[in-house]
Input
Amino acid sequence: MDLAFPAAVYAARLDRARSLAGDAGIDAIIVGPGADLDYLVGVRGHTIERLTALVIPASGAPTVVVPRMELSKVRDTAVGALGLVVADWVDGDDPYASVLAALPGPVRRVAVSDELPALHTLPLADRLGLLPELATPVLREGRMIKDEVEIAELRRAGAAIDAVHRRVPALLRAGRTEREVAADIAAAIVEEGHATVEFVIVGSGPNGADPHHEVSDRVIADGDIVVVDIGGALPSGYNSDSTRTYAVGDADAEAARRIAVLVDAQRAAVAAVRPGVTAAQVDAAARDVLRGAGYGEAFVHRTGHGIGISTHEEPYIAPGQATVLRAGMAFSVEPGIYFPGEWGARIEDIVVVTDDGVDNLNRTPHALTRAGA
Amino acid sequence: MDLAFPAAVYAARLDRARSLAGDAGIDAIIVGPGADLDYLVGVRGHTIERLTALVIPASGAPTVVVPRMELSKVRDTAVGALGLVVADWVDGDDPYASVLAALPGPVRRVAVSDELPALHTLPLADRLGLLPELATPVLREGRMIKDEVEIAELRRAGAAIDAVHRRVPALLRAGRTEREVAADIAAAIVEEGHATVEFVIVGSGPNGADPHHEVSDRVIADGDIVVVDIGGALPSGYNSDSTRTYAVGDADAEAARRIAVLVDAQRAAVAAVRPGVTAAQVDAAARDVLRGAGYGEAFVHRTGHGIGISTHEEPYIAPGQATVLRAGMAFSVEPGIYFPGEWGARIEDIVVVTDDGVDNLNRTPHALTRAGA
Output
């Protein structure tokens, strides 16, 4: 048995999902592989073509439909620890019939997990004779509000990625390629306690101006501004995600001035975080600082995203997001400025909403950091 | 630009998908991130929460709907090389409206790619006012029949994984853990020319009796039977997948005898492969040999799966699969026998259907191979 948390944690999560489904008037939730299934019963991994599904009726016991060849792996999770009903199937059987059999009689409203692929969503819709709805509104409630064990994991993840960022100035030297630096960072992510490397972005010079650049064979030059956005998952599955911007040798004075404004914008957004404010207000706090300095157009993405057992989840911190912050929410605060053809910069911390404010899980300096020239 | 194949290859694939959609009476295909999008336009990577979609109307030009922050990455694929129409969107926009705008007027039948998550499938169904169907029957036709450039890549992948299997006997020694051996194998997979490690299964002794066991901290012992099932993706995205069964030191004579039957069963299935036979017949060829020897119950999974830019795809080689084999199909032939609590064995090659028979892409010996004790 290799559970991230005691079985009672999963039992409570399942109970909460069932009761939220009942409150919402949903008859049953069908959860396919992905972060939701990991959250609810600790089952990880992802098979596309063979259906694995957790069926949670609003009343009655949940059932896990699983291919027989994955049965022993699934029993080694909360499914086994909690003694959940399992309906296994072999190639040639009809797994959708098993899902239908696990439903509480006739159903009017069925919700499915976000990640369930069309390959299974559409046959299920057909067999149910109704269009399912998304389970997000029900499931996100549980996943969005982190409990103490989850916050402790996110804190550990934050400390681990901070340790990696402290090693970056020595790795980031003129003459090396982004890819070489990224390989060293990936090794450091594992060395500092992560089980997996989720992403390593090294965006040097003009590459940094593309917020979704990953790595390339570009040779880093003296004077480059470099965005380093990195993250990994702990053995428990909880993720880190932190971005710092580095200068290789001496930075251009104008770039340094703009990045100081970005640091102010990021700090303003973090300072805006507390229970009762909306996600949009946090986004606006960063955006207003950048707009006031004339860089509104250079900030081309949202301010942040929730984080937990997936790297991107609810709540999203963006214009128009009316979600009201509550204690236990964890998300990134990561404004950036991008000047196409020249350079880009981004500063990112993971923060947790506390009862009366905010706890910042990343502690390395925010200012433009000098790396080895 | 970093295309796996010349732009003309993608243009031909898009044309074929469009014409197959037209033949099937489908008005448009909507393809989300995943293997289909990689196959059709060379776009890789996977964002769940922000919609990226290729819309292929049965008549008219395709459109790519993409978040603006991923625009430059998408332009760096066949999307840019072929000058496809791009509809980019930013947080706060309605990406489904862009999909609808890319459709050829009123539609009656719309198909979506297998991997499109419910998060996008259900809002699209709602906005379209119809339940989409799966695009598999249309898209698999293109992906299932490999052309010469694809077969050349699969052949390279096969040679690369063969080179790794040749190194396994020296790595698999009594006293090491499965995890230690797997780490060395993962490094060898990259050293031998793969860009990524897709999976490394080291199932020693009783762990080998679980067909979906991956790795553990079990210490390998003298006399263990060990299943080693490994694969990676080349830089082009095409995959390898080969399984061999090893004996650490001297194997038990009864185990060796049973594994010799398995080798016969695998050979019989490969020998059954030629145009015109069904997938079920290939499966039966292996199953009949094992059944005849009294191990029918020990063979608990299908015989194989297609392979290409995804590790599991059409055609599936299983009981009841009526798919008629045609030249250009590529799939695994991997019967196994599993004795719970004792040991398991599996032998797997990737084969390609030729005009008059079969080409085996894996060339290392099939017999139980002695590893370092």
User: Anything to note?
Assistant: The CA atoms of residues 268 and 285 of chain A lie 6 Å apart. Chain A has a mean pLDDT of 94. Chain A has two domains: 7-143, 145-371. The longest strand of chain A covers residues 196-204.
